[in-house]
Amino acid sequence: MSHMDVAPFSEQLYVKGTFNGWGDDTPMAYVGNGVYQAVVCLSADAHSFKITDQQGTEDLCFAADQYKAVDCFLAQPQVVIPAKGIGNDLVFHAPETGLYTVQLAVADDALRMTIDKGGDNAEEEAARTLMAFSFDVAANKQSLAGKGGAVLAPSALFEAWRLR
User: Fold this and answer.
1) What would you report as the CA-atom Rg of the chain, rounded to the nearest whole angstrom?
2) β 46-53/90-93 pair status
3) Which of 47, 94, 51, 98 is nearest to 74 (CA)?
4) Which of 115, 129, 7, 122 is CA-nearest to residue 64?
5) Max Cα distance, the chain (Å)
6) Is residue 63 within 8 Å of 89, Cβ to Cβ?
7) What is the C-alpha separation between 113 and 77, in angstroms, rounded?
8) How far apart are CA 89 and CA 96, in angstroms?
9) Which of 92, 101, 104 has its CA nearest to residue 123?
10) Are residues 45 and 95 in the same domain?
11) Residue 116 pairs with which residues in a beta bridge?
12) Domain count, the chain
């Protein structure tokens, strides 16, 4: 993306649906040339969703119809419109469990959403902080907090967990 390529929307967009509890944990990244995308992991099932900002603002809540749910299909662009509401979701029937890339292309004449099989979420995964630890109950049975048990100091707790 060049420094001259400005994202069409100033607000962060998300893919919100049944696969993530309609939460905002699937942000779309602006990749340039009017295109946003997000990678989602879907089970082989029907998934209802919308593309929206965090608050579901009327002008930034996108579906294919004002009033009814619309099926969308793998690798087939679907025109979307600002359409806040209930029951007018996009519905995708994932043919198999796996990663899918949801893309929103903003053009002068229309907004088009496409779902493609596969996806590279390596950048998102690399940014996640991972913590590995082991817990040795046998070594510290008497000093672990419990009913009537002693409370461990942080240093002793970390030693019990053996944080790495």
Assistant:
1) 22
2) antiparallel
3) 94
4) 115
5) 69
6) yes
7) 6
8) 21
9) 101
10) yes
11) 101
12) 2
What torsion do the CA atoms of 16, 22, 23, 24 make, to the nearest 10 degrees? 20
Domain coverage including residue 70: 13-126
Q: Are 36 and 103 in contact (CB under 8 A)?
A: yes
Other C-beta atoms lying within 10 Å of the C-beta of residue 62: 20
Tokens standing for 135? 């817990």
Q: What angle do CA 55, 59, 64 make, to 5 degrees?
A: 100
pTM for the model stands at: 0.71
Give domain status of residue 3, yes or no.
Answer: no
What is the per-residue pLDDT across 91-133, written as a single tens digit (0 to 9) for each? 999 999 999 999 999 998 899 999 999 987 555 444 444 444 4
Question: Cα–Cα distance between 47 and 67 in angstroms, integer?
Answer: 18
Q: Taking the alpha carbons of 6, 9, 10, 13 in that order, is the dihedral positive or negative?
A: negative
The per-residue pLDDT for range 20-38, each reduced to its tens digit, is 999 999 999 999 999 999 9
What CATH number is attached to the domain comprising 115?
2.60.40.3620
Residues 6 or more apart in contact with residue 14 via CB below 8 angstroms: 24, 25, 26, 27, 28, 38, 51, 52, 53, 54
